[in-house]
Amino acid sequence: MAKDVAHAPRTVTCGCIAVACTVAFPLFAAAQGSVSQDEARKRLESDRSRLEATERRSKDLQADLNKIASERERINARLVETAKLVQQSEGQLSLIESRLGELDAQEKHLRETLEARHGSISALLGAMLRMGRNPPPVMVASRKDVLSAFRSGTLLTPVLHELGGEAKALSEQLSDLKRVMTSIRTEGDKLRAETGRLNDARMRLAGLQESKRQTLAERQTELSQVRQAAAEISKSVSDLSDLISKLDKEVAAKTGLGSYEQEVAAAEPPAETKAAGAPGSPDERGTSVVLAPSSERVAMLAPGRIKPAMPFPDAKGLLPLPVQGKRVLTFGEKTQNGGQSKGVILETRHGAQVVSPSDGWIVYAGEFRSYGQLLIINAGGGYHILLAGLSQIDVQLGQFVLAGEPVGVMSTAAKGPQAKTQENAPILYIEFRKDQRPIDPDPWWSDASRKVQG
After folding, report:
1. What is the rounded distance in angstroms from the CA atom of residue 191 to the CA atom of residue 187?
2. Which of 7, 51, 221, 322 places its Cα 20 to 30 Å from the Cα of 76?
3. CA–CA separation, 99 vs 173, rounded Å?
């Protein structure tokens, strides 16, 4: 009994502690919950702020990308437009120079004719002077005077007639000479004015090309890798086909060419479908890469594109000639060596502007064996365009170019009297290939290009 009484205070104390703990724990838990909610709220607000900042940054980046795309589109459009103006001026200069050549030849012929007739005219004038010293009698006083007058008139009539004809011919030739010399001065003025316009257009073009190079600055590392690989490959390949095959893989791995080739391959019909349908049939063409609803001709003019506007086979009759010039050798024509030409040769002006005939990726740009300065454009779907004979190349390996975009220039005239003769005119070699085999490029040229070739 005493023990029970002794333990009572301890039991009461423990019970009080237990009750106190039971009461205090919910209060502590509530305090802890309040702290956790505050932290969660703060974290939520922090996350929301970061999300908003990220969204703003994303919008800013998208705006920058849109601005870059818009600038690229503007530069591309002006590049194509200015290159076209340059080629038009070159065409006008060629016409003016041709007319001046014809006028110079006419002037030379007229002067030589006048010089050749100088002797006969002098003889006639001498005869007239001698006749003037011994004129027929004014009055007939005797039979002798009648005979003298008759003889003088008989002799003078044909002489005067011949002299009159000579004088008339001389007058006409002098008038022709005056007209020719006036035309020469007029054409000379036109030549100087057109030359000024051409120089201005070339200056604008140079500025635009520099702007284009700056827009490619962000891709310099990628393009530099392609250039290094191309330099190594060009030293080790056995022939041009080997070069194209290896460079295609290199460029496709680092540019949009790879994805475009996959797109074209996915759009091609199976082999059995190709065999069943006639080449170039509507069914076959309908399986090619799908274009936007706009017309093909409008699609060719979209300057902001970063892949070909249409599959290369669908571009027949639309492509511009790469340079203003005269065709001197056609595809399949017999060459001096007795073989058949695998491409087309155009004779051009000195310093003529060269543009890309088609949309595509530059897979080679530089010296290659007997080709000299060689430019190879991959148009997708196994099609390649080769341009050889340029003096200067203004595009980079891996760069995507548009149809009509400037890619280089022909050689300028050397100094000397024979600098601009027909024999020294630059020539551009153009070759189209499908799956590494040369094909006739004629079906692809636009009507305007056919007229220029003459």
Report:
1. 6
2. 221
3. 20
pLDDT beyond 60 at 284: no
Cβ neighbours, 10 Å, residue 344? 24
Global pTM value: 0.65
Report yes or no: 351 and 408 within 8 Å, Cβ to Cβ. Answer: no
Say whether pLDDT at 154 is over 90.
Answer: no
The Cα–Cα gap between 6 and 11 comes to 10
Query: What six digits make up the tokens of 347?
Result: 């004779």
Alpha carbons 402 and 319: distance in angstroms, whole number: 11
Helix-then-strand count for the chain, H and E: 10, 11
CA distance 183 to 181: 5
For residue 393, the surrounding DSSP H or E stretch is strand 392-393
Angle formed by the axes of helices 118-133 and 143-215, nearest 10°: 150
Fold of 220-453: Glucose Permease (Domain IIA) (2.70.70)
- DSSP three-state, residue 78: helix
> Are the C-beta atoms of 94 and 202 separated by less than 8 Å?
no
Assess whether pLDDT exceeds 90 at residue 121: no
Q: Give which of 110, 124, 246 is closest to 174, Cα–Cα.
A: 110
Q: What is the pLDDT of residue 430?
A: 96
Dihedral over alpha carbons 148, 150, 154, 155 (to 10 degrees):
10
DSSP string, 247-303: HHHHHHHHSTHHHHHHHHHHHSPPHHHHHHSPTT-HHHHTTSPPPPSS-HHHHTT-T
Name the average pLDDT for the chain: 74
DSSP letter assigned to residue 414: P
